[in-house]
Write a structure and sequence with these properties.
The longest helix has 23 residues. Strands 1-7-6-2-5-3-4 form a seven-stranded mixed beta sheet, sandwiched between helices. The two termini are about 25 Å apart. The protein has eight helices and seven strands. Helix 1 runs antiparallel to helix 3, helix 3 runs antiparallel to helix 5 and helix 7 packs across helix 8. The protein has one domain: Glycerol-3-phosphate (1)-acyltransferase (3-Layer(aba) Sandwich), CATH 3.40.1130. With about 240 residues, it is of the alpha/beta class. One of its GO terms (biological process) is phosphatidic acid biosynthetic process.
Length: about 240
Amino acid sequence: MLTLRTWLFKASWVLWTLSFAPLIPVLCLSGRPPRVVRRITRLWARGTLALLAAWTGIIHRVHGDCHIALRPALILGNHQSPWETIAALVLFPDLAIVAKQELLKIPVLGWYLRYSPMVIIDRGDTTGSVRSMVTACRDALSDGRSLLIFPEGTRQPVGSPIIFKRGVELLYRTLGLPALVFVHDSGRFWPAGSVLRSGVITVSLLPPIPPGLDAREFFQQSQRMLADEVARLAG
């Protein structure tokens, strides 16, 4: 039964995503206005979460939602499944996500991510990607948007040690933003390469880290906060 519900969700998710394709020519003719593209992208995300709840019974609850209003901020999240990228578009108003270039190849959705615009990095060009990432982040900030980055770099199985890639401390130091740690246990319900399991994803938003800390201190503190909360949610 879980396998059937998983496939029904995935099929409806594909159809829901494809339904946004006819809007692309209209948006192109109107100059691809970023704010409009972002509103449509958030609508897609809300619909995806609704389909997820309807077909699989997966919902979420948020603790510490008083911190959502903090913006602009540098949001640091753990990465376990596709869920957190989708949910972040709903949880955090007007967000720019630091995402890998491969996501732009996804039909329909890739177009919306490109013109939202998100902060796209090329993992094959380390020096150039860091420079372009900082520039794109500054552009997003000038528009009043918060930034979301997954410091682990890629999705990790539940129970894996939390190890940050280098670079997050550069953004913190360069941009001078408070940092908000965004923790969840989505991998328990949407495991990679497996069927989806009904349940409630718990989201914890921890008290923000103020700007101005030493880069090394920030790196260690934020990694420890995220790791400790992931362990707490795992019980």
